[in-house]
Specification:
Blueprint (H helix, E strand, L loop, with lengths): L4 E5 L3 H4 L10 H15 L3 E6 L9 H7 L16 H4 L5 E4 L7 H10 L1 E7 L1 H14 L3 E10 L3 H12 L5 E4 L1 H6 L2
Parallel strand pairs: 1-2, 1-4, 2-3, 4-5, 5-6
């Protein structure tokens, strides 16, 4: 079994739906990678959901002025995990921020010693989570082929930036990670 805590970031309908303004074009490919990873982590998996706040504050006000469709309550359909993951998600962490490095995730990851990240979007929530966890001293692995960006170029650029943080953050693939077990 692979070591660490697998955190599957924001595999939600809003990012899967091709008609959504926030669609990740390679969501299906990322989902396939996540499906391959899940058995190797057993119950050491946390799914996250990005959700809008009831009332945006600070710079988030301007953000939601740009994306008013997203100001929906946490139980809205767009915020739900996609059907393939909803039934598998035993532990779900909601956050109104891009970075999912919350005290709850920190407790879970610290007890496991390593944080393995997959999901969407590489260039936003995955990147934000990886940097915060690395700053906290947690070893971070980002599984490139189990992630998807806003577009291919943004995905590739985010992975390049993450590579700059070695050895705190390492970019890997599903095959490399599973072979290491």
């Amino acid at each position: 079994m692979t070591t660490g805590l697998l955190t599957v970031i924001d595999m939600q309908r809003v990012f899967a739906d091709p008609d959504s303004p926030w669609a990740a074009p390679r969501f299906a490919e990322a989902a396939a990678g996540v499906r391959r990873l899940l058995p190797a982590f057993g119950d050491r998996v946390t799914f996250t959901r990005f959700v809008a706040p009831g009332t945006p504050e600070g710079a988030w006000r301007a953000y939601y002025e740009q994306w008013p469709f997203a100001l929906q309550p946490p139980d809205a359909e767009l915020w739900q995990l996609t059907d393939e993951f909803a039934s598998l998600a035993q532990h779900v962490l909601d956050s109104g921020t891009f970075g999912k490095w919350t005290p709850e995730l920190a407790r879970r990851a610290t007890s496991e010693g390593r944080l393995v990240l997959a999901g969407v979007s590489t260039d936003c929530c995955v990147l934000s989570t990886a940097l915060a966890a690395a700053d906290a001293g947690v070893e971070v692995l980002v599984v490139a082929d189990a992630c998807a960006g806003a577009d291919d170029d943004s995905h590739a650029k985010a992975l390049q930036v993450l590579e700059l943080y070695r050895p705190l953050i390492r970019v890997t693939t599903v095959a490399e990670l599973l072979e290491a077990t």
